[in-house]
Write a structure and sequence with these properties.
Length: 285
């Protein structure tokens, strides 16, 4: 089991909201109304760990090890939402999300293949690490800069934990896992070709709730994420290249094969997919 070791590793570096956040360094002159609004939206987005956890536990009933790890992931992700709300409570109390705003993003995700979901969230952690690093550079107020740096470090550690479970999945499922991971990897490393950001909170996950079936679509400002990335923190081609390079690097380690481009990863996906039996024909009406 990986959970006992991962618990110890994450416990050893867990930060304390009271002791490790330099609240006394707050500089009101360095926080604009625009910046404060983005903190509110991020606080609500981080709350999406709640429906994601419900999804993970439902779709991984046969994997108690991974499900136990999700208890740690859930705790730390909800803490991200909490520390952003604490920042607002102290310095912009009128912007603290309401319980209704938080509850609006709790809805049931459709069941999905567990291996693909695992890879999707691994990619999401890598992307969020870079988003938060970029946000830390954009912000000018010292306390929130430190908070975003702290959250970015957490997301990187979570990505590392997911990678451990992906290695285990390959050992157990072989090419089936490799094909699933490569498929999602190609999608998530191709963000420059899409009109929207590629992250679990911005993907459609429930036919019953369409078109309000993404986390971002249920925010008070559904257009916030794209504006935050393109017009505020300026997550540009340079930053996106860092994300793609990190994904390809991890895929190379995972598959024990070098991938310099998304095209190389896609060729590998086709190669391993060809070794799998064809999927059963659809038996619907």
């Amino acid at each position: 089991m990986l959970y006992p070791e991962l618990f110890k590793q994450l416990e050893a570096v867990r930060w304390d909201m009271d002791k490790d956040i330099p609240w006394d360094q707050f500089d009101a002159s360095q926080l604009s109304d625009e910046q404060a609004q983005t903190i509110k939206m991020n606080a609500i987005t981080e709350w999406a760990a709640l429906p994601a956890t419900e999804m993970f536990l439902r779709d991984n009933r046969d994997d108690s090890d991974f499900s136990a790890f999700i208890s740690v992931w859930f705790f730390e992700e909800q803490k991200h939402s909490l520390v952003l709300m604490e920042y607002l409570r102290r310095f912009r109390p009128e912007l603290v999300p309401t319980e209704e705003e938080l509850h609006a993003i709790r809805f049931e995700f459709d069941p999905a293949p567990a291996l693909e979901t695992l890879m999707l969230h691994f990619c999401g952690e890598i992307r969020l690490n870079h988003w938060y690093r970029c946000a830390a550079e954009w912000h000018t107020e010292p306390v929130i800069k430190q908070i975003y740096t702290t959250l970015a470090q957490d997301e990187a550690r979570h990505g590392g934990a997911y990678l451990r479970y992906m290695k285990r999945a390959i050992a157990k499922h072989g090419n089936e896992a490799k094909a699933a991971f490569a498929k999602v990897g190609v999608l998530m490393a191709s963000a420059r070709r899409t009109a929207q950001a590629l992250h679990p909170t911005n993907l459609h996950v429930s036919k019953a709730h369409y078109p309000r079936d993404t986390v971002q679509s249920r925010l008070p400002d559904p257009e916030w994420l794209e504006q935050w990335l393109s017009q505020q923190i300026h997550f540009d081609t340079t930053w996106e290249t860092k994300v793609v390079d990190r994904l390809l690097h991890n895929m190379s380690l995972l598959m024990e094969r070098s991938f310099k481009t998304v095209q190389e990863l896609n060729r590998f996906r086709k190669e391993v997919s060809a070794t799998l039996p064809p999927e059963p024909a659809y038996q619907g009406a």
